[in-house]
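Following up on my earlier thread - several people asked me to post the actual chain instead of describing it. Fair enough. Here it is, all 428 residues.
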Amino acid sequence: MKELKIGIAGLGVVAQGLLEILRNNGTLIAERTGVSIKVARVASRSERPGVDLMGAEFSKSIDDLCKDSEVDVVVELMGGVEVAKDLIHSALASGKKVVTANKAVIALHGNELLNEETRNRLKFEASVAGAIPIINLLQGSLVSNRIQQLVGIINGTCNYILTAMEQQSLSFESALQKAQELGFAEADPSFDIDGIDAAHKLTILLSLAFDMPFDFEKIFVEGIRSIAEKDIIFASELGYRIKHVGILRNHDGRIEARVHPALIPKEQLLANVLFEQNAVSVIGDASGRMLFSGPGAGSLPTASAVFSDLLDLGSDNGLKPQSLRKESTKPLALELIMMDEVCVPHYLRINVLDKPGIMADITKVLSESEISIEAVIQKESENESDNASIIILTNAVEEHVMQKAILTIDSLPEVSKGVVDIRLESMS
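Reply from S.P.:
Thanks for posting it. Predicted structure:
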């Protein structure tokens, strides 16, 4: 039986989950795979006396992982970017294999870390969608496909907040607080609720699905801070749920790559992925449409994905990432579509003074912009001191046209508090 000795960097919840799985299922894993995994060393800035290290050496310096000849694979579970990047680089330079759950490092530095010499020694399944094996699917089962579309709920914090707002009638602030109390959101939740975490993950999926370099800066990103409880209610009345989604769509070699809230029809499967769950819908030219759903974060789900990479490295038969071809191979001639060119329907919530003629003024702006209207609802204010809300669903319109029209509507004297704009998405 082959023995794989690992060194773990970090001793947070994922690292503890990894140790727990190994304690509970280590013998079963070895029997099933022929690979016995042993923890040789753990490195962390602080000790956790209550955590069973399974006989591993403990260090406060992560550099010891690279120096230790007993360590075959460095498992980077620290989080952060620069220190983690330096560790991965050092481990690879020393000839070791590396597994990481760090989506930010791969999204921002993947082009540097992954090359012809290292690409079979660095694995990152756990960096996207937790226990959902989407990276292995793109690199393995779906490698014969040209991906036409990939749409995913890939941030559990946002999905929890939006679900809680709908099902528990909570404000955004209250739902966020509850997510923090349950451990689904950090004390500083900005990375999640501003869409950065999802954009890091979409950067990785873009590279793997379409054979493109990692390019985080090209991803269009919006978070969920502007979503109010009334938007959840109005969307539901119209037959939609609001989800925070990452979208990749292939238009004859030109690729949309965007992360933002979207109204999704309730009858579609993606709309029914609730609370902290993740889901990824993929359409391949050969496979057709598939939906993969499961826990997108957490100690054990993420650790489960780490084990997938460890066993792949341990068996020495891992697939080469399709985004990292040999230099002699001609890359696919693809380009990203600028957000201004994206053409989708929109949901607009416009807060207005309840005065005669305002509806006509708004519809005139849309008409002059050649934006056609699918539906209009006017919601009267519950008390005289509040503004009324006008809800408009448009047909598909190019983004630059929509944003110009919104600026004009915002400038009307009867409009206050800004226009809430949420795009509509259908998975069909």
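The first helix runs from residue 13 to 33. That should answer part of your original question.
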